Amino acid sequence: MFTHQLKMKKLLSFLAVAAVAAIGNAQSVKPAYSVLGKDTICQVFIYSPGDRAGLHLAYLDDNDRWQDVGQLCSSDYGRWGSEKRMYHPFVLHASDGTWRAVWSVNDYAPCIAAAYSEDLITWRPQDYPQMSVQGCRKPIMFQMEDGTFDIYFHSDKGNRYVHASNDFRTFKEDEEPSTIEDVVWTRDTATVGGKHYEGNLFDIPKLHLSYINDYFRALGADGIMSSESMAQDSERFKTLTGLKARVTVDKAQTKAISDKLVGVFFEDISYAADGGLYAELIQNRDFEYNERDHKGWSPSTAWHSPKPIKIATDNPLSKNNPHYAVLATDTLQNEGWDGIAVKSSQQYAFSFYARNLGTDKKQLQVALVGDDGRELAKAKFKLQGEGWTQYRALLSVKADKNAPTESLHNARLVIVPKGEGEAAIDMVSLFPQDTYKGHGLRKDLAETIAALKPKFVRFPGGCMSHGDGLDNIYHWHHTIGRPEDRVPDRNIWNYHQTRGLGFYEYFQFCEDIGAEPLPVLAAGVPCQNSSNNACGYGGQQGGIPMADMPAYCQEFLNLIEWANGDPATSKWAKMRADAGHPAPFHLKYIGVGNEDIISTPFEERCLMICKAIKEKYPDIIVCGTAGPFHYPSADYIEGWKFAKEHHNIIDMVDEHYYESTGWFMNHLDYYDHYDRKGPKVYVGEYASRTRTLESALAEALFLCHVERNADVVSMTSYAPLLAKDGHHNWNPDLIYFDNTAVTTTPSYETQRLFSAYSGDHYTASTITAPDVPANRLASSVVSDSKTGKTYLRLVNALPVEVDFEVGGLSIPTGSRITGFSGLPADKKTETVTSSVTKDNHISLPPYSVRNIEI
Ligand code: AHR
């Protein structure tokens, strides 16, 4: 059941051998199969059945009919929805036996698409080399005697010529239009499924076709296994009654494992930061919202006034925050984040910057007003001069037994200007006095995260790290210093980042909860799903221009200096000290890149950054990336290959996968075959796709096996962490919240159990349970050499009770049991505790997870 991945790997190497055997070391431009004999050759047609369908392969069957085998690859260019299209693919079988494809991505981008494959199955890497003209249509190519390629395409400025290196990594467009005749665009044609298509015809060995067919069959079988769901259990296990199982622990097989296995992934997605963990209660406090953040937004969004709000930009508070509001006589109100939730008898720190616009001294009355119009707290200010000055007051919400809770939960801030003239106002801020450890984070949310006892916190993303286009890449130094000087930006998740929750706050939070900071920054390329820039160039947009890369590499070095340096000698460390943290933050890890497509621009830039870090800070653990999907995705394969080739500067690889519960249950052996000498694994984003106990069980089964492999898997983090109700960019998430309540999911309980009871050694254990599928029960034994504690986790993902008898480990009566159970469809579960009632016997109810502390 768990050997599928291995099988695929075997098939791949089988093909590699077959392909070489078939094509030999052909030096000629056209590979010749004639030596194999007529019966061993078949004809294939490579084409695209539609712009969203990607590249397909069909073969000519014995009845001379074309049969489609499936999709070989699809275009990864640009945004989901509007892009990811492939037009007029042209495929060539190169003289070295590899396959090359070019296509056009749309009719306005200044690029073509190029990809190569060794086996027609895994296409890598996909590059979108930039051209001097927009609208690069119908590219075609020829291979030269020296192995390089001549590519031609149509454009509004005539036909163009591009020369490609034989590794298909460098593409150089001729300055002059090409004079080549249009006749070279003549294509092969075939009728597949009754429709007529243009494409390319090839002869390939039957062995190769059979490998391709096997591959698709294996993929199909994997898909069927991965569709396993606990909803089918009543039928599948209808004859199953209470079970007895034996767990055998083999102390002789104990190995050291990572003591940082379970952490958290924090991304500002679904209002996780502004409006979430960052405790600021005023929305758009900086008047910097704009149309690019979100369609229809402007500097006055979330603010209300009887007349249009006057916004100005001259003589701003900070060049990074150019907009501010101008007050004359009209009231200004802020709606908060879906209202402002306050608590009776609590204090709130109110502040703003203002300046009189003239010689008149304006006065401001500020009040917190409940939903029912009741005034909850107020303060008065007299503005002193014409220069920006910060004003502060503590607003105490009156204890009022008669105030309806709803009214407190939906308050608003009201500013009433008094007196002649006008005043400018900016950075209007309201924080609860009571934040997590006094560091400005919302207490209940921070406590819920802290209760996971995460060993590390990854931040600030996710896709938010690499950003929507080059101009949206997250620059960490834009997020430190005085809040008004930080550089706000649009959030790739379609809202605004104030950067109030910046790198200082992230590092402080890590320290407050005893977790290692794991910042992940862009590898010099934005998200491959980025929208178009002004020239209509989307996706990775060619990456940060090479001329700017030294400065970008320096940003990583500055970060390490800022986090760890000595304020007496380092200007960056001094900024940290000035912000209130003279002691170093002891940064040990840095992530470079977030699930990027492993393109040439990515590889070139990633290497520059990793080299720069390792040259100056060889002890920093550098984490690379392997695309957005697991094996056998091309980015995964190429990302790992790249990391292994550069293991001297890449210590760990970040893997991402969001999958069905069935996938997790049927890939419990996923890490068994990983190379122990290569880079370590960071499973940076994973989750099974329900919000129910079924996911919590599947993830618990999986984590038992991850622990078994925690000599190679160093870190894991469920993703995403937080989502605000009404603002979900993603589902499921680990923790949901609104302005007053926090709701954890069953998966949260799994994370807590594996993180709170963690260790640094793993002892092998096996389960004997006749007649039940092995993927529904799991055990894992970890021990912590620092505390001397041993933990046995048991997972029962069956609809019946299982009585476990444990051998090889002494579990005395009274040992503490922690865990949860329920029904697969339950959206809520809670951890319960009990104790062992009979030495070495533990009974697990249906669908349950237990941790036994020894
Ligand atoms: O976790 C949500 C998103 O999923 C992340 O931003 C991205 O890295 C992944 O695609």
From TrEMBL:
The keyword Signal applies. One of its GO terms (biological process) is L-arabinose metabolic process. Pfam families: Alpha-L-AF_C, ASD1_dom, BT_3657-like_N. Residues 684-848 form the Alpha-L-arabinofuranosidase C-terminal domain. Residues 1-26 form the signal peptide. Coiled coil: none annotated. It catalyses: Hydrolysis of terminal non-reducing alpha-L-arabinofuranoside residues in alpha-L-arabinosides. It comes from the Bacteria. Keywords: Hydrolase, Signal. One of its GO terms (molecular function) is alpha-L-arabinofuranosidase activity. SMART domains: Alpha-L-AF_C. Its EC number is 3.2.1.55. This is non-reducing end alpha-L-arabinofuranosidase. It is an enzyme of class 3 (hydrolase). Belongs to the glycosyl hydrolase 51 family.
